[in-house]
Fold:
Amino acid sequence: MSTDGQASGERASGGPERNGPDTAALIEARFGVAPHFAQHAPPTETVATMLRHRICRRFTDEPVDEATLERLLAAALSTPAKSDLQQVAIIVVDDPERRGRIADLIPDMPWIRSCARFLLFCGDGRRIRRICELHGIEFGNDHLDAVLNPAVDAALHLSSFVWAAESMGLGTCPISVVRNHIDAVSEICELPDLVFPISGLCIGHRGDTGHQVLRLPPALTVHRDRYDDAAFVDELDGYDRRRDAVFSIPPDRQQYRERFGTADFYGWSLDKARQVSATERADLAAFLRRKGFRLD
Ligand SMILES: Cc1cc2nc3c(=O)[nH]c(=O)nc-3n(C[C@H](O)[C@H](O)[C@H](O)COP(=O)(O)O)c2cc1C
Structure:
């Protein structure tokens, strides 16, 4: 018997092939290049869900009921957490007034208002300190790692929630732009000291199929035994051209044309370089200090 998910009954199904989706085809769709291996085993449902991921920014009016939400939360809360400290807080923003205020802060992302449910994933450095207080023990880790650990926990839980929701056919869109309004969002959700937003998350029933965004080639993101980016320029150029062939960014969508002009070839890397040329969230460290973190 194959060991790849079969024992748990977790076998992909529904694809055109008798044994489930074609791994090589899913990987080729994800990276825009065929994998080196010949297909030898169909992926599990989980792997197929991840390979098929598409962001969702258009939702139908259909609600996501409480039972579904609870199931997704339970799945997300099964995520491994650093040192078993479980430093995450998830705010389910159901109150229309509060959700409306968050949506008003970010008018260029109307999916915050139109999705069925909106959640806020937060790093929670408060709970462990309260636990220390309860036991009369001094918290001895008031430094940068006390921010990183809850941030990582929150991000992992967000990711798990996304995969769980997508495995049920729902669409999702994380919203890190809540951090551009971190004071206001914290106030709307009444986040106490030592609790900070990492990302919002829109969930709902998909209003369109979206499109699959090609990933950087593993030659750039996966390193064997040692970091090696010797092929950086060539691999990046190949990636820019593969992406452009699938989805070309029109001249009027080029970022900061007033500063940089209109490029003849506007690939992903130029778009991202222009994007990060603008300073965003420079007040984050000040916010975290105000919220009680030392960051030393
Ligand atoms: C942590 C995180 C934060 C994100 N923040 C936003 C956001 O604020 N607004 C938005 O529309 N999309 C947001 N996204 C979606 C990304 O833009 C999207 O994942 C990316 O364009 C790649 O598309 P794909 O997910 O379909 O591969 C976020 C995604 C992640 C993982």
In short: Residues 1-52 form one domain. The chain has three domains: 1-52, 66-207, 212-296. The longest helix spans residues 145-167. The chain has 13 helices and four strands.
